[in-house]
Write a structure and sequence with these properties.
This protein is α+β, with helices and mostly antiparallel strands. The protein has helices at residues 11-28, 35-45, and strands at residues 49-53, 57-63, 72-77, 81-88, 107-114, 119-129, 132-139. A hairpin with a 3-residue loop joins strand 3 (72-77) and strand 4. The relative contact order is 0.16.
């Protein structure tokens, strides 16, 4: 029901209208994603990365211009998920200055990578140089080939 049709166009009534409309939407979108999920999805989509495989290791390369190493976290979750996350904070505004244009992204960022089975999660290193984060994950040595087992045949 639109209360503006009846001439009730005050902020109080528009807030009431919004609350009534939100009640209708909640029944329809019971399985809608949470705000946290949407925020994390946007943070992951806005953080591009390159992944390279070498004979003995993998590298994950992420541009992190203007960030100090203390603003970045590199973690391993669930045993095999590499998580690179952090936050770029807005610069403190100096008195008398105002933004004419703001294009650089601020806020949280995150990327998750499922590591392959041969990744050695105990041997991970990260270096941030000239605004580029490079995470190196060493590979486990290949398993020894199984030698065939000879079974002795008994004479009956």
């Amino acid at each position: 029901m639109d209360l503006r049709i009846m001439g009730l166009d005050s902020p109080l009534f528009s807030t009431l209208q919004h609350m009534l409309d939100a009640g209708d939407d909640s029944d329809k979108s019971f399985n809608a994603p949470t705000r946290t999920y949407v925020r994390d999805a946007k943070a992951m989509a806005a953080t591009p990365a390159d992944v390279k495989e070498y004979p003995n290791f993998y590298t994950f390369i992420v541009d992190m211009p203007g960030l100090r190493s203390g603003d970045i976290k590199v973690q391993v979750e669930d045993g095999n998920v590499l998580v690179i996350s952090g936050e770029r904070k807005r610069e403190e505004e100096k008195e008398g200055a105002k933004y004419v244009r703001m294009e650089r992204r601020v806020g949280k960022f995150m990327r998750k990578f499922v590591l392959p089975e041969n990744a050695n999660t105990d041997k991970i290193s990260a270096v941030c140089q000239d605004g580029v984060l490079t995470v190196t994950v060493e590979k486990l040595p290949p398993p020894e080939p199984k030698k065939p087992k000879t079974i002795e045949i008994k004479i009956a």
